[in-house]
Amino acid sequence: MRARSLLVIVVAVAAVLLLVGRTATALIVDHAWFEAMGAPSLFWEQVIDTLLLQGGAWIAGSLFAFANLHAVRRTILAVAVPSRVANIELTAMIPGRRLLSGTIVLALIVGAILAIPLTNWEDLALVRHGVPFGEIEGIFDRDLGHYVYWLPFEETMYLWALVSIVSLTAMVLVLYALTRSLRLEGRRLAASNHVRRHLSVLGALVLLLLAWSYRLDGFDLLLQGSGPDGLFLHVDHRVTLRMDSVLSYGSAIAALIILRTGWAGQLRAAFVTLTVVLVAAVGLRHAVPAVLARGETLGDPSRRDRDYIAARALYSRRAFDVDGMRIVGADTSVRAPLPAPTSTLARRAALWDASTLPAGLGESEPVAASARTARAAVTEKQFVDVAGLGWELVDDQLTALRVRRPIAASESWRLALVNVATPVLRDSSLTVPGRADAHDVWPLVGPGVQGSRILDADTATEVPGALLDTRQARMAHAWAMRDLALLDADSLAGVPLLVSHRDVRDRVRRLMPVFEQSEQLFPVRSEGQLYWVLHLYSASDRYPLSQRWQIDGGVYTYFKRAATAIVDASTGRVRVVPVARPDPVARTWMTRLPRLFTPVSALPPALVAALPPASESALAQLRTFARYGARSEGDVVRHLPDSALAGGVPAPVMLDQAGTPQLSWSVALLDEAEGIAGVATVTGGADQVTWWSPSVAPSIRWPVALDRLRAFDDSLLGPAADSSRRELRVRRGRVSSISTSRGVLLVQPVQITRANGRVVVSRVAITDGTAVGVGGTLAAALTMLGETVVGSVPAGSADRRDDVERIEGDAARWYERMRQAMKQGNWSAFGAAFDSLGRVLGRPPQ
Length: 846
Known about the structure:
There is one protein chain. The termini are far apart. The protein is α+β, with helices and mostly antiparallel strands and 846 residues long. Among the domains are: 356-417, no CATH class; 702-840, no CATH class. The chain contains 22 helices and 29 strands.
C-alpha cells in the first residue's frame, strides 16, 4: 500500500515538475522573442493580464469548488477501502485528514480546469488601460468605452460564472446520488436537510446569475433593438429597458427568498417563487413590450421613433468614420487627388481586377491544349498564390505583382509582374528580392511560412531573433519548442540566431492582438525589397446604437482603420504605422506600447507611396455614407449599384496626388432616381483617404448608361447564329466608375474564354452617359470616344499575334452575319453587322 502511494506521489510530482518546467521555458522563449522584436513591455503586459485573469479565476473557482465538495464531504462519515494481506481480507478506514487533503486537491484541479478557457487577456488589457472615448450615450449615461472595453470582459466573466455554477451543481448532484444523500423513494425525491440547504444555496446563485443576465440584456438592447436591422426604438427605451431592470432586481430578491425558504424547508414557497420569476420573465420581457408597441400608448407610431433613427445615423457615422471622408472642392488640409487624365487612363487603369486576373493567366482547366501547354499548366498548378495582388507602376504602366509559393518545399518562390492594362495577360518573372547571402533564406517571413530558422547573428544583423549564445538559452528553447536539434545550435559557425513565428499574420497578431487584421495581405516592392502589408482595424461588435455591418465574416458595429503593419520579407522586421487620427482603441495601444509604432515620416517615401488602400474600412464607410449621408448634409438617400462590389473591390487606377502616383479604386453611388450622385474614390499612400466627388453636371442615369453599354456589347459579342456553347463562354465584366478630367466614365470589359481555357478581354466599352466608345483596348475605346491617348500600351509580338487572331475571328463572324442577313432580306441587321465589321477593322461609321 505504501509502495503504491509512493509511486502515485512520485508520478504526480514528476507531472507537476514537467508542467512547471514547460511553462517556465515557454515564458523564457516568449520573453526572448518579444525582446528581439523590441516589445518587452508587451510580454510583461501579457503575463500580468494572464495571471490576473486565469490566476484570479483559478483561485475563485477553487474556493467555490472546495466549498461545494467540502459540503458533500460532510455527508460522508467514513470511507472504507478493502485490502488483502496474504489470505486475510482487511478493511481500512481512510482518515478524515486524508479525505480533506483529497478534497483540496480535487478543488484545485477543478479550479484549474475552469480557468483554462480564459485566454482573452487582451480584453483585460483594454479594461485596465482603455482610453475613454469622451462621448456619453444618453440611455445609461456611460462613456462609449464602457461598451467597447468593459462589456466584452463582463460578458466573459458572466459566461465563466455560469459554466462554473452549472458544472459544480451537476457534480454535486452526482456525488449526492452516489452517497445516497439524494435518492428516489418511489415517486418522491428524498433528500436530507443538509442536501436541501446546499441545493438551495446553489439555486439562489442561479437566480443571481439570472439577475446578472437581465443587466447584460439591457446593454445588449442598445446593440440589437427590436426595430429593423436591430434599431433601438422608443418601446425598447421606455418599456423593455425598464422591464429588464425590474426583472434584474426581482431575480435578486427571489434569490434571497429561495435561500430563506429552501433553508427552512418551505419547499412550496420556494416553488411558487421560482414559478413567479419564470412567468414574469416571459410576460414582462416579451409580452408587455409587444402589446404596447402595437398601439398608441407610447405615442404616434409614425413619429415616436424619429429621434432614435437620428441617433442611429449619428452613431453609425462615428462608428465607421464617415466624418473622416473628404469632399472634393471643400476647404481641407489634405490636397485632393487629381482626376485621372483621359490621356493616360489607358496605361494607368486596370482591365482586370483581383477576381478575374487568375482566369486571364490561364490557370483554369484547359479544354483542349497542346502537350506543351498541358505541361505548362501542370507546372503552374504546382504553385499557389499566398497573398493578394500588389499594384505598382512599371514604365508608367499599371502592373500587378504576384507572389507564388511552391507546393514542393524544394522549389523556390516565384515573383511575377502582370501588365493589367492589356487585353491578354502574361507573367513576367522577377528576380527574388532581398535575397541575402548571409542567411540564404527567402522569404524569411511570409504568408503561411511555418517552423523556425537558425541564422548566423554576425551576418544577419538586421534580422530580429533570439540569441542562442548560452547553453541555458538553447535548453530552454529546445524544451519549449520540443526540438532537440536546438541543443546542437552551438556547432554552427558564429552566434546562433533563432527566428520563429515566421508566418506574417501570426507575427503581427502577437504584436497587435487588439486589432482585427485585413483579409487581404498585399505584397509591395520598394527599393529592391519586398514587404508584406497588412491593414489593422479597431473593431467591436459592442458599440451601441450603431448600424451592424458584416465585414470579412464578422459582424461589427464599430470599424475603423487603426494602423498598417509593414513586414520585411527578408528580415522579418515589423513596422506599424498608425493613422493620422487614431481612435481611442488605437490610442490605448499606442500609449501603452509606444515603441511598437513607427511614424509615417520615418519610412522611405517610395514605400509610403506604394501602400495600398484599406478596403474593408472603406467599404464599411461607404455603406454607412450611402445609407445615412454625412453630418454636413443630413440624411441623403443613396445606394451602391447592384453587384458593384461583387467579387471584391473594383479594378484599381493610379492617381496623382502632389506629383506622387497613388493606388486607388472608385465606385459610384446612386440617388433615388438611379442617377449617379457622385463617385467615391479610395486612395492609398500615406493619407488613406476616401474622397467623395459629388456630381455637378446633370446626373448620369445608371440604367441608361448600362443599356448603352449593353447595346454595343450585344452588337460586338458575335452573330446570333453562333452556337449556345460559344455564347456561354462570353462574360461581361463589372462596370467600373472612374472620376476623370472628362467627368465620370463608366468602363466595362467583355471577356471571352477560349477553347484552351484562357480568358482574354475581347472588347472594352466606355461611356460618359451620352457617347459610347468601343475598342479592343481601353486606348482604342477612348479614341473612339474622341479622347487623345498619349503613349498607348505597347504590345509584344505575342500580344500582336493574339490581336490579329482576334480581329480575323471577329471579321469572319461579322461577314457570316452579313451573309445570313442578306439571305433573310434583313437589311437592318445587315447594316448593323456592316458597321460592326468596320469597327473591327478600325474604320468605325462616321
